[in-house]
Input
Amino acid sequence: MTCDPGVIGIFSTLDIAVLKPTAHGVFTVAAPPPHWFLPLVADPIGDDSLVSAFPFLDSFLPNARDFWARVEAGSLRSGTWVQRDSPDSESAFEATALRALSENYLLIAMLGEEFQQRRSALQSARSRGLEKEALERRNREMERITGMTSDFLATMSHELRTPLNAILGFSALLTQGKGGALPERQQHFAGQVHQAASHLLALINDLLDLSGMEAGRMRLHPEAFTLGDELQETFSTLAPLALQRKVALRSDAGCLPLPIYADRIRFRQILHNLLSNSLKFTPEGGTVSVSAHLEGPWIEIVISDTGIGIPEAEQSLIFEKFYQVPRSKGDPLEGTGLGLPIAKGLVEQHGGKMSLRSRLGAGSSFTFTLPSGIFNRGEL
Ligand code: ADP
Output
């Protein structure tokens, strides 16, 4: 008795052809056969050629014989294999074989489309994996560069501050005539040196703060205080600027003892950065006001002005480092573009959030939250 299958079913996932021999060895087609199988069916295949399916399977499906060879007598077996047709093309096959004493069946499914899909899904998963890996590598590199830049800035800032303090101190002495009376013109020059050095020191301090925040090196020293006290302090520092700009500085939160639990120095810095911006970008006769209220465990503080406003397209950009809204000539542009990123970064270091509402020509409102410390005073 032959061990080879006498009945062959070959079907693809799209065209199914299950071919069964009748008692006289004539094929009946149970379903439309795949086009590549038709010539075989159309040809009058005699009983002899049915004795073994392999002569023709061998020519294009060499693995089928191996598969069949591993089917034990009296058992049913399923399996799949991939056949490389050419260097850049593969086909997958799924086979089920029944080897009985009287009848042998071998059903082979060509997993054409499904296989292609599976393969391209695998390939795209693989390329997604590669992309993710490349992205992670790039992120690690960026972190390393940011860390190096922060270290460099921290070292440089420290080294620059020492001589700068000497310039500041001595130019102040010269301006005040403490090193001997100076002619008016020279006194004026010394004043300018002092002013430029102060500006440079502020810039260096800002850079140091930003690099510290980015490197995760900033330490906060939270304490409990009231908004009113700090507001009074900041208002008196900014009063000369408000006077010079002829802008009213108001607050309805000043006399309320609203509690804050934050780093006091950093809080002053946030207030100062936002309020000085509002004073700077509000034309004569305008108003800058501060309001606040408690919102659960947070205090929400709003700084509003009746100033020039910020175009919608620029509203997210102004929180980027060094970004300044381009203005027409003659508008005030002194500054560094670091005040807002620092203020927002400081708020976030406290676990709070900062947002902006603004309309061009109609003013801006910066809202931020900080812990009130009412419910808990966790570590910041
Ligand atoms: P700087 O004030 O030093 O330029 P900031 O980071 O504080 O840097 O602000 C970035 C930019 O955002 C400013 O240059 C200005 O164009 C815009 N801006 C900030 N605050 C206001 C405001 N209250 N009104 C209008 N524009 C503002």
